[in-house]
Amino acid sequence: MSASTVFDRITIEVGKMNGQPCIRGLRLTVRRVLEALSTYDSREELRADYPELEDEDIRQALAYAAAMLADETVEIPTVS
């Protein structure tokens, strides 16, 4: 993953969810997606409880977390 990676499904809105990174502007944080991934036995079970979550959302949540651990700079659209 390069430093110029763009996460087009990760959004940060100052007035939503305390400015935490969310999935596509939903009230579903990247952190919650990662927590859910660790507790559900399968993605199918996860999607049953979170039907709005798409495969690309999950992939970008995981990639975003990895980028944050690697201290890489990523571009995220910010909505005021």
Please describe what this structure looks like.
The chain is an alpha+beta fold and 80 residues long. It has one domain: Winged helix-like DNA-binding domain superfamily/Winged helix DNA-binding domain (Arc Repressor Mutant, subunit A), CATH 1.10.10.10. 40% of the residues lie in helices and 10% in strands. The chain has three helices and three strands. A three-stranded mixed beta sheet has the order 2-1-3. The model has no long low-confidence stretch (mean pLDDT 88).
Can I get a quick summary?
With 80 residues, the protein is α+β, with helices and mostly antiparallel strands. It is 40% helix and 10% strand. A three-stranded mixed beta sheet has the order 2-1-3.
- Distance, first to last CA: 27 Å
Give the CATH class: Mainly Alpha
In what range is the share of β-strand residues? Answer: 5-15%
Largest sheet: 3 strands, mixed
Shape: globular
List the helices and strands and how they pair.
Elements: E1 10-13, E2 22-23, H1 30-39, H2 43-49, H3 55-69, E3 78-79
Parallel strand pairs: 1-3
Antiparallel strand pairs: 1-2
Helix pairs in contact: 1-3
Question: Main traits of this protein?
Answer:
single chain; 80 residues; alpha+beta; Arc Repressor Mutant, subunit A; three-stranded mixed β-sheet; 3 helices
